Amino acid sequence: MPESPPSTTTLCPSCAEPLDAEDRFCEHCGADLSRTASGADPSTAGAAASPSGAETPGAAGGAAGGAPSAAGPAGTDGRHLGSAAADAGTPGEGPGAAGGAAGASAGNPAAGTAGAGSAGAAPSAAGTAGTGGNPHGGAHPRAAGAGQDGQLGGGHHGTGQPGGGAEGDGAATDAFLLAPPQAAGGGDTLALGVPLAGAKVSDPREEEPAEENGTVCVACGLGGVDADGYCEHCGHAQPRKRDHQEQELEGVAAVSDRGLRHHRNEDAFALSTTSLPDGTPAVAAVVCDGVSTAYRPDDASAAASVAGNESLLASLERGAPAEEAMRGALMAAFDAVSALAEEETQDGVPHHNAPACTCVSAVVTGPVFTVGWIGDSRAYWIPDDRDRPSARLTEDDSWAARMVSAGLMTEAEAYADDRAHAITGWLGADAVEVDPHVAAFQPESPGVIVVCTDGLWNYAESAAEMAEVVPPDARTRPLHSARTLVGVALDGGGHDNVTVAVLPFPAAVSRAGFPPAQVTEGLGGAVNGL
């Protein structure tokens, strides 16, 4: 049987890899084989000959993995001059080349130069005579030249026609450099997200994350926060707005903190200032502590503080006596908390454990201040002169207080019992009885009223202990004092939420109805002297 004649193997003109007869593109380098028919030799990395025999510098070597750029010979279509590398480039294999100037004299065939290309991007190129090249691959830099816009490659000087031939008669042009490829929109990357050479590669840890609903995780700094308060990226629980709050008005300041053991802050406070009908300023603070064993304790304290504060202001502004206004405020707070039980029902049946909280409030009006409370949140009087006695102004509605008042146990014994903090009075729909406690005081000297939850007084229970931790300048720096007292509770262990309001007395308000000097001259005795 006769042997078959040896087959002729066709090689890729760019990478010399074997080709099949039906191939239109090289499977190895991606070169467009149909363009070789035009007469341009993609494998040539040299220069076209000039009439004088000198060589014009052409494109020099391509980057690894890409086809080298080349300059076409004289008389070829200008679209192909210097464009073989652009046609052969594949994603991630774009060649880079440093091109020289094109023909330097009339009649010298123009040799297109390939600009510096970055990985994956088509190289730029321009004709000698054209003022701007049109590189393949999407980027459109403009290059300075003598003529009008030309196609990629060279053209007649001053004509912008493609395919510079021997008939060109224009004057020689100076060498020029192509502008680097520009990204769409002027950024640091080309189309398809390929970075430009020399572009700064950003560290994702330094990038600004895309915010969702305007909130970014405080732990990882990347994920958005869902409606439940958890990071969608790392799952970290986010601090709630109430975890730490501070407020300062003229004559009063308060700070509330979640503490170190609780997962949320169930305390709440409200501060306000107003004027009595006679122009006397009034400064008030309402502090509430949610009962943790009740349902929705955080909502209960928030509702009570807002309702109590609004009622207190309204009553004072219409001229009601401070004690009457305070009693009305406590009842308004009770109604607000009780209403929460009506909102939460299961199949028409109220929740088995209604929302509940305690409440303590103080208001300074002229030479007198008034305190009202239900539960075991407290108020203390701390004079500026620490040689004078401080005082606890409230009596707890608690099991321990009842044991002491009944003479069954000493105070030390009662508060050492596990049942000490079981409250006997609170605000809520299931309260056994609602008995607002109100008392008015007229101190003989200046000082501060400290209104707080048991998250603080558990670490400074007696009036003497509280006086030791209240800063000496509390009356002139109430916010600093409140922060310091919260710090005392946190340093002590922070086992509970802690909320503290500090009210200077006399009221540190510019419209005070009496000179501060009068307070130091002895104003006590009208109500309860301190």
Structure write-up:
This protein is of the alpha+beta class and 530 residues long. 16% of the residues lie in helices and 17% in strands. The protein has helices at residues 84-88, 297-317, 322-343, 399-405, 411-416, 454-457, 463-469, 478-491; strands at 10-11, 18-19, 113-114, 125-126, 244-249, 252-257, 267-275, 281-290, 345-346, 349-350, 356-365, 368-374, 378-383, 391-392, 427-428, 437-441, 447-452, 498-505. Helix 2 packs antiparallel against helix 3 (322-343). The model is unreliable at 1-6, 37-181, 183-196 and 512-526 (pLDDT under 50).
Keywords:
alpha+beta; six-stranded antiparallel sheet; 8 helices; 18 strands; elongated; disordered N terminus; single chain; 530 residues
Overall spatial form: elongated
Structural class based on helices, strands and sheet pairing: alpha+beta
Order of helices and strands: EEHEEEEEEHHEEEEEEHHEEEHHHE
What is the CA-CA span between the terminal residues? 129 Å
Residue windows where pLDDT falls under 50 for at least 5 positions? 1-6, 37-181, 183-196, 512-526
**Largest sheet entry:** 6 strands, antiparallel
Total DSSP helices: 8
Mean pLDDT: 72
How many β-strand runs?
18
What portion of residues is helical? 10-25%
* Multimerization status: single chain
Strand content: 15-25%
Largest beta sheet: what is the strand line-up? 5-6-18-17-13-14
Radius of gyration over C-alpha positions, nearest whole angstrom: 43 Å
